[in-house]
Design brief:
- The chain is of the alpha/beta class.
- About 45% of the residues lie in helices and about 15% in strands.
- It contains 9 helices and 7 strands, in the order αββααβαβααβαβααβ.
- The strands form 2 sheets. Strands 4-5-6-3-7 form a 5-stranded parallel β-sheet.
- The N and C termini lie far apart (about 55 Å).
């Protein structure tokens, strides 16, 4: 996009002065387009408006690039999970399902905000969903992520990572040079995100070589949790099991500022049957 000087040169070729002055740029005479017989206008205002349009266009391109991040890089257990939304999470008023859905909505709204009630920059926080398989944790976590991905201003890089799928890909990279999800690539990609869902955390403990896998995951989780990224975690473990599975350094980081953002899904029936 040309800057103001070329625009002004272009205007001198096909415009003529009209005698009046711009109310904003009081030293600038109004002109008109000789060929289009346009209404008199200020050339400086015109140049500024073009720059504003360029900036707006650049912001739109940047936002589209950021919002596509989630769809391009997320690791899903099932691609249909991308279709999840608050609207199709069935929950009748007065039920536990309705309670967790409403709380998840509120937390999604909190992630959209950049300041607190006092106008100060809000503290970063994580969200943790505890509960049995099939109770809707993944569905609501994805709904939250899509809400932030679509409506955050400024835009936020969002990422959905199924932990078991991630570990499978990383372990596969040890013997497959074509596998791009190496340990370092994973950490780099995750570090670039502003909000991440770590789905099904705890399932990796059921791998065959449990002790080795556990140690590897501990180190990986420590590096992830040490970043300024905000996390939404889903797990089939209870809080007690969760705290026994990971070391205290990781636990303290994962539970950072979660006083109002832990949701217990116990009491909800398996929705898969």
């Amino acid at each position: 996009m040309p800057k103001a000087k070329p625009i002004m040169d272009y205007m001198r070729i096909r415009t003529k002065k009209m005698g009046g002055f711009c109310p904003t740029h009081t030293d600038t005479e109004l002109i008109t387009d000789i060929y289009n017989h346009a209404k008199p206008f200020c050339p400086k205002c015109a140049a500024e408006n073009i720059e504003k349009e360029k900036t707006s266009f650049d912001r739109k391109i940047t936002r589209e690039t950021i919002t596509r991040y989630m769809y391009r890089y997320s690791l899903l257990d099932n691609k249909s999970e991308l279709q999840s939304s608050f609207d199709d999470f069935r929950a009748e008023k007065g039920t536990k399902e309705y309670e967790v859905k409403q709380k998840a909505r509120l937390l999604a709204g909190a992630y959209l905000k950049s300041t607190d009630k006092t106008g100060e920059k809000r503290k970063k926080f994580n969200t943790i969903f505890f509960g049995n398989p099939g109770t809707g944790k993944t569905h609501l976590a994805m709904s939250m992520l899509k809400g932030v991905n679509g409506y955050a201003k400024p835009a936020k890089r969002c990422l959905f990572i199924n932990v078991n799928t991630l570990m499978d890909r990383i372990f596969s990279s040890f013997n497959d040079p074509t596998e791009m999800w190496t340990k370092e690539y994973s950490i780099k990609l995750i570090s670039q995100a502003d909000l991440i869902v770590l789905d099904d955390l705890g399932t990796e403990s059921s791998m065959t070589d449990r002790e080795q896998a556990s140690e590897f995951v501990q180190k990986l989780l420590y590096r992830i949790s040490n970043r300024p990224t905000e996390l939404i975690i889903t797990t089939n473990l209870s809080q007690q099991q969760f705290k026994r599975t990971y070391n205290m350094k990781i636990i303290s980081r994962l539970f950072a500022n979660t006083r109002n953002s832990i949701i217990d899904f116990s009491g909800i029936k398996d929705k898969r049957y």
